[in-house]
Predict the structure.
Amino acid sequence: MKKYDVAVIGGGFSGVAAAISAARGGASVILAEKSNCLGGAACNCLVNPFMCYWTFEENGYVMKKQLSDGIFNEILEEMKKLEYEIDGKTYGENKPIGTFHEEYLKLALNRMAKNAGVDLLFHANLVASECEGGAVKSVTLSGKSGTFKLEARYFIDASGDADLAFLSGFGYRLGRDADNLCQPMTLCFRLSNIDIDKFHSLPQGYINNLYNKFQDEGKIKNPRENVLMFSNYLNGVIHFNSTRIVKLNPTDPFDITKAEIEAREQVFELFLFMKRNIPGFENCELMMTAPEIGVRESRMIEGEYTLTEGDLLNLTKFDDAIAYGRYSIDIHSPDGTGTYLHHFKKDEYYSIPYRCSVPKGAENLLVAGRSISADHTAQSAVRIMPIVCCIGEGVGTAAAMAAKDSIPVSGVNTAELRRILKENGAFIEN
């Protein structure tokens, strides 16, 4: 196998954006993904819809500034092309805002990566790293033919769990500082054959009031305080983000196994609750569960800078910002019941600096996605797909710059990095 300029580990939104931007920057790039598709949590965990990635006009629910421009917006445009190709309709026409079709997304990401010149490698599990003096020399991947080494001059960890940084010996934190507990894992699922009109005619609070009554009576074991549902791209389908698995470690394979088993019991419990008690769901079917349980939080690297709750609340605009967001501080209780939310005002937004993607002491490793250097509270806001996509674009661009000049990742000129990002269509505040 040839030696690449940049190797990206993980094919979620951050990894795809990192790979595409690095390739466009002139680097030879390979993207290694453990599953059979790109899209990460969107496709493998059925995380849907996209959470808010824009500011609002003062009056009404109208987009003012799209904070996730650049490659994320290109992804949306590529899905529009696919929809038009199918039946001449605009993608998402007359559908709930932010919803998307996972199969269209997989195809769109494949096309974008290939068009950028990225080499794709599926079914490749990261198992080891060779690291000397802060420089990753190679990684070991496993596949059907056994283990093999992948060499590159620069690496990007987009694994979601900081797997490469961890295996390379760089510092990290797990969950909240007090007890290392992470936000709960969730197995998303979908119910089909629903009478949507009857469902929408229910009084506000009807479902959750009944759900809480069942909890009080011991008929519902799920510790989550409410049933979180979303309209889906598909007719007659409701998407559920309602299971809650607490006090298990998302980086421990035994704990993940326990989580998957427990989550499927919760799915069936919620399915029966809806089918037997909620008007419009009388004839519903359990359509599908996600292929993998969703992880909100796990390892976060110790970076050159740690993004904090205060940075978000103060709407800090960093000189080396590579991404922006206004998604809420959204902490699902690691202990069980309860969700803490801090909503930002319509025109408020914060920034994420490049330094959060640089592990302390790293020469040629950058981190993209939800495992950047952030505290427990800040991570709960910046973990969503539009934001991590922008982080990935910034990190990939930086890796290409470092490869071109053969410099450490900490030596990247961030003013030039921001100029290039803005030139390429990303939202970068002057």
